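Hello forum,

I keep getting stuck at the same step: I have a sequence, I want structure tokens, and every attempt I make locally crashes halfway through. Rather than fight my setup again tonight, could one of you with a working pipeline run this one for me? It's a single chain of 67 residues.
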Amino acid sequence: MGDIHNRMQVILRPEDEAEWLGRDNDDIQALLNLLKPYQASEMRAYEVPKEVGNMRNNNVDLVREVG
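Reply #2:
Ran it on my machine without issues. Output:
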């Protein structure tokens, strides 16, 4: 991801989402354990429309591949 952006966002595994979002989960260590590198083999990089850079935009077309 370093070639794309200087910060890596957290990417949660689908099975960890409920634990991460649970408002009653106050087990800090359990939450920190969810913050681990995502498998590079599970990611794919592709160019998206420039509109993705504007937080006012929110639609499915922002994740379509350009080119």
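The chain has a mean pLDDT of 89. If your local run keeps crashing, start a new thread with the error log.
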